[in-house]
């Protein structure tokens, strides 16, 4: 009796136990043996709900699929319309090209009419110095501060564009009235822009160290330089050589300085002689050193080339206006050169011939 109960107790645990109940497995086997006689779900719904008869259901099953639909006749017309639109509007728009070409800033500088905020931003004109190096007088030119670890000042490009346009008008006005403009840039890399701007404005240039006293004591420092006299058409006039030996060189009517910190002596001499000045003022410079400041980044060579080229173009426009007026006989400016009109060569040659003839006659009589 004890053995029978032990076998029954352990025998139940030894038999494999199904994972699903018997009723559920029977239902699954019975459902898998049923064959489906239709495949259209719409037909299935119609039969269940007691809808249309079998003929209508068969008609529904015979509907063509999307892949069997005939192509639309408007495809060819749409393609022809697309080709027509492409031929008509294909030339519209703009072509992407490299925006920054360093050689063009010297070979073809921008004009005053080309001054835009995009051009100034692309040339890094808005980047200033560290906030610890700023000059308080530049507060009206500063747009804001950028950075947290080493913050720098950002120059307002609206102010830069406005002040640069004003400087262009000044350079154009000076050259239009026969004035002499001096372009100064003594940093590395500024030689090309200084020479190009001076050539366009028909002025002078300086790219080496400024000799102190060149303006205040120009008779001694620049006394041995070559001098010449030109007329209103920029044609050299001879006959003033004797008078030029005693005359001092002309002082510039306007000075354009591209780097202020290194040329303080030059700016001081210009102030002593009432010579107006134009200069690029960074956030660490004193804007009172120049008469017409241009707030911009003087450490960026691209920015300096843009500003120098624009001012040179303004001087070129002024020279063209002056020569155009001169060809029409209009000279609306005066030059206080204090030179006397030389004697005509014909009178001098005639006097020499008469004197020679008199001497020859006296020699023959003897």
TrEMBL record:
Stretch list, region Disordered: 333-366
InterPro entries: Ribosomal_uS2, Ribosomal_uS2_bac/mit/plastid, Ribosomal_uS2_CS, Ribosomal_uS2_flav_dom_sf
GO CC terms, sorted: mitochondrial small ribosomal subunit
Superkingdom of this protein's organism: Eukaryota
GO biological process: translation
PROSITE patterns: RIBOSOMAL_S2_1 (PS00962)
Record key words, sorted: Ribonucleoprotein, Ribosomal protein
CDD domains: RPS2
Signal peptide per UniProt: none
Stored Pfam families: Ribosomal_S2
GO molecular function term, any single one: structural constituent of ribosome
Basic and acidic residues compositional bias, start-end: 335-345, 352-366
Similarity annotation: Belongs to the universal ribosomal protein uS2 family.
PANTHER family named in the record: 30S RIBOSOMAL PROTEIN S2 PROKARYOTIC AND ORGANELLAR, SMALL RIBOSOMAL SUBUNIT PROTEIN US2M
Protein name per Swiss-Prot or TrEMBL: Ribosomal protein S2
């Amino acid at each position: 009796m004890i053995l029978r109960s032990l076998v029954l107790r352990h025998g139940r645990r030894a038999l494999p136990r199904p994972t699903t109940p018997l009723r559920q497995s029977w239902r699954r086997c019975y459902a898998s043996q049923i064959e489906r006689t239709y495949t259209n779900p719409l037909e299935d719904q119609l039969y269940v709900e007691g809808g249309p008869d079998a003929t209508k259901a068969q008609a529904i099953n015979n509907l063509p699929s999307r892949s069997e639909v005939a192509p639309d006749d408007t495809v060819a017309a749409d393609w022809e319309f697309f080709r027509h639109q492409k031929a008509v509007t294909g030339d519209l728009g703009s072509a992407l090209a490299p925006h920054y070409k360093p050689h063009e800033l010297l070979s073809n500088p921008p004009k005053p009419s080309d001054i835009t905020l995009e051009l100034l931003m692309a040339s890094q004109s808005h980047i200033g110095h560290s906030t610890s190096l700023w000059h308080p007088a530049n507060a009206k030119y500063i747009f804001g501060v950028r950075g947290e670890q080493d913050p720098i000042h950002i120059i307002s490009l609206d102010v830069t564009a406005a002040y640069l346009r004003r400087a262009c008008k000044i350079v154009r006005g000076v050259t239009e009235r026969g004035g002499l403009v001096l372009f100064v840039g003594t940093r590395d890399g500024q030689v090309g822009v200084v020479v190009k701007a001076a050539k366009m404005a028909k002025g002078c240039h300086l790219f080496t160290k400024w000799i102190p006293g060149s303006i205040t004591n120009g008779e001694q420092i620049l006394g041995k330089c070559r001098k010449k006299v030109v007329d209103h058409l920029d044609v050299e006039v001879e006959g003033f050589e004797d008078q030029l030996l005693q005359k001092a060189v002309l002082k510039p009517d306007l000075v354009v300085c591209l780097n202020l910190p290194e040329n303080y002596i030059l700016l001081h001499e210009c102030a002593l002689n009432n010579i107006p000045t134009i200069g690029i003022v960074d956030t660490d410079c004193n804007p009172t050193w120049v008469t017409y400041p241009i707030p911009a980044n003087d450490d960026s060579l691209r920015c300096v080339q843009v500003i120098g080229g624009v001012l040179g173009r303004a001087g070129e426009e002024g020279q063209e206006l002056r020569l155009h007026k001169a060809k029409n006989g209009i000279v609306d400016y005066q030059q206080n050169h204090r030179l006397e009109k030389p004697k005509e060569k014909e009178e001098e040659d005639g006097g020499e011939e008469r004197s020679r003839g008199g001497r020859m006659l006296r020699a023959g009589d003897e």
